[in-house]
Amino acid sequence: MLAEKEHALVAALRPWCGKFPDVTVTETVVEGRPGRELVWASARAAPVVVGHRARGTRPGTHVGAVAQAVLHHAGCPVAVVPHP
């Protein structure tokens, strides 16, 4: 099951890695609570980029539980990027 998810992740990132070859990307698939796993991974990252669903609100007015956990507990800079 994790191997299938890892394959899907690599396939999804492949176009972006080709477009930005100077950016180092590490693909890792784990099971667990997303906020906790991202905070744990932040100790070895710089920066962590977390998506935020923009649902008709102004930027910065509301982020989800995962983004909030990472913002408050990450061990590196965090970028919260809105997406539709």
- What's the helical proportion of residues? 40-55%
Low-pLDDT stretches: none
Total domains, how many?
2
Radius of gyration: 14 Å
**Broad structural category:** alpha+beta
Element-level helix/strand string: HHEHE
The amount of beta strand, in percent, is 5-15%
Give the number of helices: 3
- Oligomer designation: single chain
Short description:
The chain is an alpha+beta fold. Helices cover 42% and strands 14% of the residues.
Secondary structure layout:
Blueprint: H1 2-19, H2 34-41, E1 48-53, H3 65-73, E2 78-83
Parallel strand pairs: 1-2
Helix pairs in contact: 2-3
Descriptive account of the structure:
This protein folds into 2 domains: 1-29, no CATH class; 32-84, no CATH class. The protein is built from 3 helices and 2 strands, in the order ααβαβ. The chain has helices spanning 2-19, 34-41, 65-73, and strands at 48-53, 78-83. The longest helix has 18 residues, at 2-19.
Primary descriptors:
two-stranded parallel ribbon, 42% helix, 84 residues, 14% strand, alpha+beta
